[in-house]
Task: structure prediction
Amino acid sequence: MGRDRGAEDLGKTFGEVTFMWTATDIVSLAAVIGAAVALINYTNKAFLWLHKTAQQVEDLKSVKEEQRILCLGLSACLDGLIQLGANHNVPKAKKALDDYLTSQAHK
Result:
């Protein structure tokens, strides 16, 4: 005779078929939504890691260029000291720097 209004509110009628939300349906839907959110979160973290890695590669390139310029300046300074007659450790340092630069150029 009297229908339960609470059950009627939870159900949807499609033609002659009535779909009722059960606790299992709600838990399953929550699990699917949770898995989707976790997947999006991990994808976002992977993207951010790749972006950070690319930025580090760019930073490393600029640091290497800076070091190259500093080594050239140091080499010029040592050459100038040798020309001025500084003979104690300056020629040794110049040779060590030249050897290092030569070995790095062939890597």
